[in-house]
Design a protein that fits this description.
Structural class: alpha+beta
Number of helices: 5
Helix content: 25-40%
Shape: globular
Order of helices and strands: EHHEEEHEHEEH
Distance between the termini: 19 Å
Strand order of the largest sheet: 1-2-3-4-5-7-6
Length: about 180
């Protein structure tokens, strides 16, 4: 599965809330920290993101146009990492979530993170992607490494101990071989 298999559309907090609720409350999504969320909680959380000029949510769609994953991106100078590191011009923060499935496809999640990163780097102003996954989320650390992230240090966020990591535009394209 190629990263170019996917397209993106803005998430609609009202019409997509039920779908997202199933994704974020599944045990596989424990690191999303919404296990006990009610449908209204998910709707409210994504309404807040939709109204926030520094935080955005997109759905990744498969080749049939069906929702396949969630992507969020944010300005780390204003959200998530304020006061936890010194943001540089061109920094953008990112989260992604692939839903649980009974029929896993080998390489799917790696294709997703590659597509998410390529999408972020479509903006010429983006020079570096910043992530802050839970230190115990070894699966995402391996995925981050596969697309060029370099861990910098552990940081303490209000909700978790996180591994602050960065991936420059150049490192992403060299590591993945995705055409720039």
């Amino acid at each position: 599965m190629s990263p170019t298999t996917f397209t993106f559309r803005p998430l609609d907090p009202l019409t997509d809330a039920e779908l997202l609720h199933g994704w974020v409350t599944h045990p596989k999504a424990a690191f999303w920290m919404m296990q006990d969320a009610k449908l209204e909680d998910v709707e409210r959380a994504y309404m807040e993101i939709a109204a926030d000029e520094h935080h955005h949510a997109l759905l990744g769609l498969d080749r049939d146009g069906e929702p396949a994953f969630l992507m969020e991106y944010y300005d780390p100078a204003h959200r998530e990492l304020v006061g936890l590191y010194e943001p540089q011009p061109g920094d953008i923060g990112m989260h992604f979530l692939t839903p649980a499935t009974d029929t896993p496809v080998h390489g799917f999640t790696r294709s997703v993170i590659t597509a998410v990163m390529a999408r972020l780097f479509e903006d010429p102003a983006v020079r570096r992607v910043v992530v802050e996954p839970d230190v115990s989320n070894t699966a995402v650390h391996a995925l981050n490494d596969a697309v060029g992230f370099v861990p910098e240090r552990e940081i303490q966020k209000p909700e978790k101990r996180a591994l602050l990591s960065f991936c420059t535009r150049e490192r992403f394209f060299v590591t993945t071989g995705v055409p720039a």
